[in-house]
Amino acid sequence: MTDRTRLRVFLVAAAGLAVALGVGLAGLPRFGSPASTYADVINALAVPLRRSTDAVSAVTLDFRGIDTLFEEFILFAAVAGVSILLRPLSDEIGEMPEDQAPDRRVPPPSPAVGLLGTILAPLLVVAGLETVTHGQVSPGGGFQGGVVLASALFVVYLATSYSRAERFQPGGLLEASDGAGAGGYVIVGVVGLLAGAAFLSNTVSLGQPGNLISGGTIPILNAVVAVEVAGGFVLLAKEFLDQTAVIRQDRGGRRS
Amino acid sequence: MRDAVIALALVWVAASGTAVVLTRDPLHQAFVAGFFGLCLASLYLAMQAADVALSQLVVGAVALPFVILLSLAKVRKPE
Amino acid sequence: MTVLAFAVVVWLFVVGLYGMVTSRNLIHLVVCLSVAQSATDLLLLEIGYVGHGHAPVFVDLPKHPGPTVDSIMQALSLTDVVLGAAVSALLLALSVQVHKRTGTLDPDELRTVEPNRS
To answer: In the complex, which subunits touch A with 3 or more CB pairs below 8 angstroms?
Structure first.
């Protein structure tokens, strides 16, 4: 198929799709119209029932917690898939970047970048922990805070060398934290069963709305999700970094 | 007033999304995609979705460009 | 306003598809996919938006604060944003492996699976 015919086929199909989407969207309520009853009920009940002032966290981790459990497993599967795809293959070897040219060292990053990273990395860790722990009070939570925590390690890599950043990301620990995050969510759910209620029901004492310790299982699940997300994203970065810096084709025997 | 902000952000999102697609060089595209993520985050913020904006901010502006850049570093042609 | 909001969703989705169809580079294709995917997040949030509503965060608010935007739609798209990045990373890892095996990222050059290769 030539580019031109492919583009024609696409334009016809896209026009059809756009019309179908337009017709479908025209049946939706107007933009800005009042929320559904379900949403109003959830918004009204988040504080009295769950003592969580952030209704979004309450929905994600409590009212619809089982959805988030499955989403966690999707994340886990995606990270595991990347690990499997980017493992060293049989015709590849891993060697530290310094070994490439023994007489020359890898040039260190500039002092300005190093200083910026030194300032930024701890700030990102603090911001990440703040986002995770305040998930039930204000916007934030495990998903956002986890990525912020992971980005602190990205900054460490940018500001130092690969071999130094490597010390901060031991592979086994990362894989364990990714798995512990996914498994921990199930364990918190089972605690609900042990307490004689349904799976994932909020059986921990709820506390006062607006306090750091409030919302029962919501902050616990936030912490668990943060462990999984942070571990998963650092693991993703580590696998790609290994591909770039360490793993290369074995010059001894290249197979096609 | 808020409707005007949302409308402006919507136009920005449409324009920067188009720019992401039309940037054919993946290296340049990584940066344009980061900008697109920022536009989306500000639109979400204007639409009172602070949680989603935070999520989009860290993912779109940090995590996704970082992974794209690392893939590009792996597949670039050896000099 | 309604027309503009939903038109942007359709536009993002279709323009992302256009980029995927015409892409000559698998990494470019994955980023176009993430543009098309963000259209779904945007649609969910637009359905949940309430005119002059405030965010569903009930800190320092009066007893009856007026309309609130839909928190369920926000919860749905919140996890989707993070997952989308992880899935994009998975696709990028596939692209890296394709490049390792075949030496190219152009989808048009990946014809080895076709039987009548000329």
So the answer is: B, C
